[in-house]
Amino acid sequence: MSELKGIYALWYREFKVFQRERSRIVASIINPVLWLLIIGGGLGSVLSFGGVDYLTFLYPGILVQSLLFSAVFFGVYIVWDKKIDFLKEVLVSPMSRTSIFIGKILGGSTDTLLQSAILLVIGYVFTATGVLSGITFSPFSVAISCVFLFVTTVGLVSIGLIIGSQMESPEGFQLISSFLIFPMFFLSGALFPIENLPPWLTPFVLVNPATYSVDGLRGTLVGLHRFNLGLDLFVISVFSLTMILIGTYAFKKMKL
Q1: Element holding 200 (H helix, E strand)
Q2: What pLDDT shows up at residue 219?
Q3: 154-193 residue pLDDT tens
Q4: What distance in Å separates the CA atoms of residue 1 and residue 101, rounded to the nearest whole number?
Q5: Please, are residues 216 and 235 in contact by the beta-carbon 8 Å criterion?
Q6: What is the CB neighbour count within 10 angstroms for residue 127?
Q7: d(Cα 139, Cα 78) in Å, to the nearest integer?
Q8: Left (φ > 0), alpha (ψ -120 to 50) or beta: where does 145 sit?
Q9: How far is 155 from 151, CA to CA, in rounded Å?
Q10: DSSP of 129-167, one letter per residue?
Q11: What ranges in the chain are assigned the alpha helix state H?
Protein backbone atom coordinates (compact mmCIF):
# COMPACT_ATOMS: atom_id res chain seq x y z
CA MET A 1 0.00 0.00 0.00
CA SER A 2 2.86 2.40 0.75
CA GLU A 3 4.22 1.84 -2.77
CA LEU A 4 0.81 2.54 -4.27
CA LYS A 5 0.49 5.73 -2.21
CA GLY A 6 3.91 6.82 -3.43
CA ILE A 7 2.97 6.15 -7.05
CA TYR A 8 -0.24 8.12 -6.57
CA ALA A 9 1.66 11.02 -4.98
CA LEU A 10 4.07 11.23 -7.91
CA TRP A 11 1.22 11.00 -10.42
CA TYR A 12 -0.74 13.71 -8.59
CA ARG A 13 2.28 16.01 -8.44
CA GLU A 14 2.85 15.77 -12.21
CA PHE A 15 -0.84 16.29 -12.87
CA LYS A 16 -0.94 19.46 -10.74
CA VAL A 17 2.14 20.81 -12.51
CA PHE A 18 0.42 20.17 -15.84
CA GLN A 19 -2.71 22.01 -14.72
CA ARG A 20 -0.72 25.09 -13.74
CA GLU A 21 1.20 25.32 -17.03
CA ARG A 22 -1.61 26.64 -19.19
CA SER A 23 0.75 27.98 -21.84
CA ARG A 24 2.12 24.45 -22.29
CA ILE A 25 -1.40 23.09 -22.76
CA VAL A 26 -2.28 25.76 -25.32
CA ALA A 27 0.97 25.27 -27.27
CA SER A 28 0.58 21.50 -27.30
CA ILE A 29 -2.84 21.90 -28.93
CA ILE A 30 -2.21 24.84 -31.25
CA ASN A 31 0.95 23.45 -32.86
CA PRO A 32 -0.60 20.15 -34.08
CA VAL A 33 -3.70 22.01 -35.32
CA LEU A 34 -1.50 24.40 -37.30
CA TRP A 35 0.36 21.44 -38.81
CA LEU A 36 -2.95 19.84 -39.73
CA LEU A 37 -4.55 22.92 -41.26
CA ILE A 38 -1.52 24.50 -42.95
CA ILE A 39 0.42 21.45 -44.13
CA GLY A 40 -2.69 19.36 -44.65
CA GLY A 41 -4.63 22.16 -46.28
CA GLY A 42 -1.74 23.28 -48.46
CA LEU A 43 -0.66 19.90 -49.75
CA GLY A 44 -4.26 18.71 -49.72
CA SER A 45 -4.97 21.00 -52.65
CA VAL A 46 -2.80 18.79 -54.88
CA LEU A 47 -2.53 15.45 -53.04
CA SER A 48 -4.82 12.62 -52.02
CA PHE A 49 -4.07 9.05 -50.92
CA GLY A 50 -6.23 5.94 -50.87
CA GLY A 51 -9.31 7.80 -51.97
CA VAL A 52 -9.21 10.33 -49.10
CA ASP A 53 -7.99 13.90 -49.14
CA TYR A 54 -4.57 14.66 -47.67
CA LEU A 55 -6.01 16.55 -44.70
CA THR A 56 -7.86 13.41 -43.61
CA PHE A 57 -4.85 11.21 -44.36
CA LEU A 58 -2.66 13.46 -42.21
CA TYR A 59 -4.88 13.58 -39.12
CA PRO A 60 -3.75 10.27 -37.50
CA GLY A 61 -0.13 11.26 -38.10
CA ILE A 62 -0.70 14.55 -36.30
CA LEU A 63 -2.07 12.65 -33.31
CA VAL A 64 1.18 10.68 -33.13
CA GLN A 65 3.22 13.85 -33.65
CA SER A 66 1.54 15.34 -30.59
CA LEU A 67 2.39 12.22 -28.60
CA LEU A 68 6.02 12.27 -29.70
CA PHE A 69 6.74 15.85 -28.74
CA SER A 70 4.74 15.94 -25.50
CA ALA A 71 5.67 12.50 -24.18
CA VAL A 72 9.39 12.50 -24.92
CA PHE A 73 9.90 16.09 -23.77
CA PHE A 74 8.26 15.17 -20.46
CA GLY A 75 11.64 13.71 -19.55
CA VAL A 76 13.08 17.21 -19.18
CA TYR A 77 11.20 17.47 -15.88
CA ILE A 78 13.55 14.81 -14.51
CA VAL A 79 16.45 17.15 -15.26
CA TRP A 80 14.72 20.05 -13.51
CA ASP A 81 13.86 17.82 -10.54
CA LYS A 82 17.57 17.06 -10.23
CA LYS A 83 18.44 20.75 -10.23
CA ILE A 84 16.00 21.62 -7.44
CA ASP A 85 16.92 18.46 -5.50
CA PHE A 86 13.32 17.19 -5.57
CA LEU A 87 14.41 13.98 -7.29
CA LYS A 88 17.06 13.40 -4.62
CA GLU A 89 14.38 13.57 -1.93
CA VAL A 90 12.26 11.07 -3.85
CA LEU A 91 15.14 8.67 -4.48
CA VAL A 92 16.13 8.50 -0.81
CA SER A 93 12.53 7.77 0.21
CA PRO A 94 11.48 4.19 1.10
CA MET A 95 9.86 3.84 -2.34
CA SER A 96 11.50 1.45 -4.77
CA ARG A 97 12.91 3.01 -7.90
CA THR A 98 10.60 0.85 -9.96
CA SER A 99 7.61 2.49 -8.25
CA ILE A 100 9.16 5.92 -8.79
CA PHE A 101 9.54 5.18 -12.48
CA ILE A 102 5.95 3.94 -12.72
CA GLY A 103 4.67 7.05 -10.96
CA LYS A 104 6.54 9.24 -13.40
CA ILE A 105 5.23 7.24 -16.37
CA LEU A 106 1.64 7.59 -15.17
CA GLY A 107 2.07 11.33 -14.59
CA GLY A 108 3.57 11.97 -18.01
CA SER A 109 1.11 9.67 -19.76
CA THR A 110 -1.88 11.39 -18.17
CA ASP A 111 -0.67 14.79 -19.32
CA THR A 112 -0.04 13.58 -22.87
CA LEU A 113 -3.29 11.63 -23.16
CA LEU A 114 -5.32 14.64 -22.04
CA GLN A 115 -3.77 16.61 -24.89
CA SER A 116 -4.58 13.76 -27.29
CA ALA A 117 -8.17 13.67 -26.04
CA ILE A 118 -8.51 17.36 -26.87
CA LEU A 119 -7.16 16.69 -30.37
CA LEU A 120 -9.70 13.88 -30.80
CA VAL A 121 -12.47 16.29 -29.86
CA ILE A 122 -11.09 18.86 -32.31
CA GLY A 123 -11.00 16.15 -35.00
CA TYR A 124 -14.62 15.29 -34.27
CA VAL A 125 -15.61 18.96 -34.55
CA PHE A 126 -13.67 19.32 -37.81
CA THR A 127 -15.42 16.23 -39.16
CA ALA A 128 -18.85 17.48 -38.12
CA THR A 129 -18.22 20.86 -39.77
CA GLY A 130 -16.82 19.35 -42.98
CA VAL A 131 -13.19 20.41 -42.54
CA LEU A 132 -12.26 16.72 -42.36
CA SER A 133 -14.04 13.99 -44.26
CA GLY A 134 -13.83 10.21 -44.21
CA ILE A 135 -12.89 9.87 -40.53
CA THR A 136 -14.97 7.45 -38.44
CA PHE A 137 -15.71 8.59 -34.90
CA SER A 138 -17.72 5.65 -33.61
CA PRO A 139 -17.49 4.39 -30.00
CA PHE A 140 -15.49 1.39 -31.24
CA SER A 141 -13.01 3.41 -33.33
CA VAL A 142 -12.49 5.93 -30.53
CA ALA A 143 -11.92 3.13 -28.00
CA ILE A 144 -9.37 1.37 -30.22
CA SER A 145 -7.67 4.71 -30.93
CA CYS A 146 -7.39 5.37 -27.21
CA VAL A 147 -5.73 1.97 -26.73
CA PHE A 148 -3.15 2.79 -29.41
CA LEU A 149 -2.60 6.26 -27.95
CA PHE A 150 -2.17 4.93 -24.41
CA VAL A 151 0.27 2.13 -25.29
CA THR A 152 2.31 4.46 -27.53
CA THR A 153 2.38 7.17 -24.89
CA VAL A 154 3.72 4.82 -22.21
CA GLY A 155 6.62 3.84 -24.46
CA LEU A 156 7.43 7.41 -25.48
CA VAL A 157 7.24 8.78 -21.92
CA SER A 158 9.61 5.99 -20.89
CA ILE A 159 12.08 7.11 -23.57
CA GLY A 160 11.94 10.67 -22.26
CA LEU A 161 12.52 9.49 -18.69
CA ILE A 162 15.44 7.30 -19.78
CA ILE A 163 17.11 10.26 -21.52
CA GLY A 164 16.32 12.60 -18.62
CA SER A 165 17.80 10.21 -16.08
CA GLN A 166 21.16 10.39 -17.90
CA MET A 167 21.24 14.14 -18.55
CA GLU A 168 22.47 16.92 -16.28
CA SER A 169 21.19 19.94 -18.20
CA PRO A 170 17.95 20.82 -20.02
CA GLU A 171 19.98 21.91 -23.05
CA GLY A 172 21.62 18.50 -23.33
CA PHE A 173 18.26 16.80 -22.99
CA GLN A 174 16.68 18.90 -25.75
CA LEU A 175 19.60 18.24 -28.09
CA ILE A 176 19.48 14.46 -27.63
CA SER A 177 15.68 14.22 -27.70
CA SER A 178 15.44 16.33 -30.86
CA PHE A 179 17.78 13.93 -32.66
CA LEU A 180 15.37 11.16 -31.66
CA ILE A 181 11.96 12.81 -32.12
CA PHE A 182 12.30 14.23 -35.63
CA PRO A 183 13.56 11.01 -37.29
CA MET A 184 10.82 9.05 -35.53
CA PHE A 185 8.19 11.48 -36.80
CA PHE A 186 9.41 11.86 -40.37
CA LEU A 187 10.00 8.10 -40.76
CA SER A 188 6.64 7.08 -39.27
CA GLY A 189 4.51 7.48 -42.38
CA ALA A 190 2.68 10.35 -40.71
CA LEU A 191 3.21 12.57 -43.76
CA PHE A 192 3.24 10.03 -46.59
CA PRO A 193 2.17 6.45 -47.40
CA ILE A 194 4.72 3.78 -46.54
CA GLU A 195 3.98 1.65 -49.59
CA ASN A 196 6.35 1.76 -52.59
CA LEU A 197 9.14 3.53 -50.72
CA PRO A 198 12.73 3.43 -52.03
CA PRO A 199 14.52 0.25 -50.91
CA TRP A 200 17.05 2.20 -48.83
CA LEU A 201 14.28 4.00 -46.91
CA THR A 202 11.95 1.09 -46.18
CA PRO A 203 14.05 -0.56 -43.40
CA PHE A 204 14.22 2.70 -41.44
CA VAL A 205 10.45 3.07 -41.63
CA LEU A 206 9.78 -0.54 -40.64
CA VAL A 207 12.00 -0.49 -37.53
CA ASN A 208 10.38 2.72 -36.30
CA PRO A 209 7.76 1.94 -33.62
CA ALA A 210 5.89 5.16 -34.42
CA THR A 211 5.16 3.69 -37.87
CA TYR A 212 2.91 1.06 -36.32
CA SER A 213 1.16 3.59 -34.13
CA VAL A 214 0.37 5.79 -37.14
CA ASP A 215 -0.72 2.76 -39.16
CA GLY A 216 -2.99 1.53 -36.38
CA LEU A 217 -4.62 4.91 -35.86
CA ARG A 218 -5.01 5.49 -39.59
CA GLY A 219 -6.55 2.05 -40.03
CA THR A 220 -8.95 2.62 -37.14
CA LEU A 221 -10.04 6.16 -37.97
CA VAL A 222 -9.66 6.33 -41.76
CA GLY A 223 -9.67 2.69 -42.87
CA LEU A 224 -6.25 2.88 -44.53
CA HIS A 225 -3.52 0.65 -43.18
CA ARG A 226 -0.65 -1.46 -44.45
CA PHE A 227 -0.40 -3.92 -41.57
CA ASN A 228 -2.95 -5.89 -39.60
CA LEU A 229 -4.20 -3.87 -36.63
CA GLY A 230 -3.30 -6.74 -34.33
CA LEU A 231 0.30 -6.62 -35.56
CA ASP A 232 0.40 -2.85 -35.07
CA LEU A 233 -0.77 -3.17 -31.48
CA PHE A 234 1.61 -6.07 -30.80
CA VAL A 235 4.67 -4.14 -32.04
CA ILE A 236 3.73 -1.04 -30.05
CA SER A 237 3.11 -3.13 -26.93
CA VAL A 238 6.51 -4.87 -27.23
CA PHE A 239 8.17 -1.49 -27.76
CA SER A 240 6.50 0.03 -24.68
CA LEU A 241 7.27 -2.97 -22.49
CA THR A 242 10.92 -2.88 -23.59
CA MET A 243 11.18 0.82 -22.80
CA ILE A 244 9.64 0.26 -19.36
CA LEU A 245 12.21 -2.44 -18.58
CA ILE A 246 15.10 -0.27 -19.81
CA GLY A 247 13.75 2.74 -17.94
CA THR A 248 13.40 0.80 -14.71
CA TYR A 249 17.01 -0.33 -15.02
CA ALA A 250 18.14 3.24 -15.81
CA PHE A 251 16.39 4.57 -12.69
CA LYS A 252 17.96 1.87 -10.52
CA LYS A 253 21.41 2.88 -11.78
CA MET A 254 20.76 6.63 -11.56
CA LYS A 255 23.06 8.37 -9.09
CA LEU A 256 21.85 10.91 -6.54
Answers
A1: none
A2: 93
A3: 999 999 999 888 888 877 888 888 888 899 999 998 888 8
A4: 17
A5: no
A6: 18
A7: 36
A8: alpha
A9: 7
A10: HTSS-S----HHHHHHHHHHHHHHHHHHHHHHHHHHHH-
A11: 2-20, 22-34, 40-44, 54-73, 76-83, 86-91, 97-129, 139-166, 170-186, 202-206, 209-221, 229-253
Residue ranges for the chain with pLDDT beneath 70 = 1, 45, 255-256
Rounded Cα–Cα distance for residues 247 and 256 (Å): 16
The pLDDT score that the predictor gives to residue 256 is: 61
Whether the CB-CB separation of 72 and 160 falls below 8 Å is answered with yes
pLDDT tens digits along 196-218: 889 999 999 999 999 999 999 99
Contact between 75 and 162 under an 8 Å Cβ cutoff? The reply is yes
CB 183 within 8 A of CB 159: no
Phi, psi of 49 (to 5 degrees): -135, 135
Rounded to an integer, what distance in angstroms lies between the CA atom of residue 1 and that of residue 154? 23
The CB density around residue 5, as the number of other CB atoms within 10 Å, is: 11
Report how far residue 217's alpha carbon sits from residue 201's, in angstroms, rounded to the nearest whole number: 22
